[in-house]
Amino acid sequence: MSDVARFEFLLVIISAILILALVARRLSLPPSAAFIAGGLVMALIPGAPSITLDPDLVLVIFLPPLLMSSAYFTVWASFRANLVSILNLAVGAVLFSTLAVGCVTRWLAPGLPWSVCFALGAILAPPDAVAAKSVLERVRLPERLSTLLEGESLLNDASSIVVYRVAIAAFLTGTFSITRATTMFGVLSVGGVALGLALGWAAVFLIRRIGNATVVICLTLLLPWVGYVTGERLGVSGVMATVTMGLLFGWHQHEVFPAKTRRSADAFWEVLTFLLEALIFVMIGLSLHSIAPLDHEIFPTTGRLVGGVAGVVLATIVVRFIWAYGATAVDWTRAALRGIPHRKGRWGEAAILGWAGMRGVVSLAVALSTPEDMPGRNFVLLTTFTLILVTVVVQGGTLSTLIRWTGVGEGGEEADGFLLTEHEARARMATAQREAIEKLAVNEAGEVLHPRLLEQYRFREGAATRYSRDPGGLKNDRDAHYAALKGTIVAGRSEILRLHRAGKIHDHVLRRLETELDLQQLALET
């Protein structure tokens, strides 16, 4: 297959992605499920080009920017407040799942070495950040639960990859050392965090001094790969380095990015993450062709193979439920002993934590990277692909139904008593702006230099304060006000287009005035 043919096939894939995205939206399906199905169909078309995935290349190309994006938009305060619970899932659940699934695999396939069984457990253990994001953005969850799921998917790759490497090392050498495994985990994790902090602070220092929005956006695109590749080269976790940089950027974005840069970067990253996520799921579907025929030494019949795959997939799903409910029971007992009131919906949250365990590109790439001569490799590939398909399509497709059934999503964000509502925060912002304009609009002699501007900000403060006290009372007035403003924007846009079509203004004048109107409309729509 020539390079030109590969590029043409890539264009076909991107075209299919756009069509599948529209179909998924029209049918209210999870986009990730539609993309996997599309990849499956393309893989089964007679004469379709065969694409062999290099697992290392897949991880290097796709994982860093997607991890960076997810970490960048993480709610930092909620992430920090729930860090212990996140680590409980990202480390504890991964280790528990690896051991439990490894034992089940050994029971179902006695011919497999223990090291291979535990390697499969490590491959299947971590929910994927990309898969989680693609599903969670379509459902409404309390902030704490959403942070737990997103935070877990960001951090669990490091622990699962360490466990996998230890298992493969045991397979290759025939020995296992708990001391070596613990040391490896510590070096990878702590080293990755330290590297991410160093690179992140250096990048923040540079961005503060770069005034060009285009250069800054290109730098934000480059940094995830710099962190990931540097970490892997230095023998630490590139995943942790990238996630740490993303969290650091997310915290400092409001200080270092000018308004134009932030808006442009958000639009750029939105398109980029959409394409990368879609390509990943399509390639998961296309990877079906890489699964070789049945290994008769492990499973003598197709029926035994199907039973083995189904048993391991079911065990992986059940084990996550056991951990979720077990951790919830421990929290409930600890709270009861301390006399802390029980949080409403605790057991419903456990059900959602158990069900929202979508697997994705990391599991697939690690499975594809297993040694060619490893016993049961075809079984590992088939089981991994089946679990990804089941969790993304079945669990991801029914997650919103489970949320409605448990009632966990009712009310949207959790009612945190120490947090201001949006209306209260808007009133505080209006007061700060009014106080600032009162100082700037008056000269040293006490003369008002900008009376209309001062009047405008005083009016905004009064309206925002009233609206914070009675959100429903001013809604009709605000809607009418915004409708009138939108009408003026439409009229202005029509006029400058008329002048341009008549040849009375230059193109650059049209673009400049159109940008002003676009900003006014964006301010209204947000």
Automatic annotation (TrEMBL):
Entry annotated with the keyword Kinase: no
Gene Ontology biological-process annotations: regulation of intracellular pH; sodium ion import across plasma membrane
Residue span(s) of domain Cation/H+ exchanger transmembrane? 14-405
Alphabetized GO MF terms: potassium:proton antiporter activity; sodium:proton antiporter activity
Q: Which domain of life is it from?
A: Bacteria
Query: For this UniProt entry, which segments traverse the membrane?
Result: 6-24, 33-51, 57-79, 86-107, 157-178, 184-203, 210-228, 234-251, 271-292, 304-326, 347-367, 379-399
Q: How does it sit in the membrane?
A: Multi-pass membrane protein
Assigned keywords, A-Z: Antiport, Cell inner membrane, Cell membrane, Ion transport, Membrane, Sodium, Sodium transport, Transmembrane, Transmembrane helix, Transport
Cellular-component GO terms for this entry: plasma membrane
Q: Where in the cell is it found?
A: Cell inner membrane; Cell membrane
* Matches recorded under NCBIfam families: a_cpa1
Q: Which family does it belong to?
A: Belongs to the monovalent cation:proton antiporter 1 (CPA1) transporter (TC 2.A.36) family.
Q: What does this protein do?
A: Na(+)/H(+) antiporter that extrudes sodium in exchange for external protons.
Could you identify this protein by its name? Na+/H+ antiporter
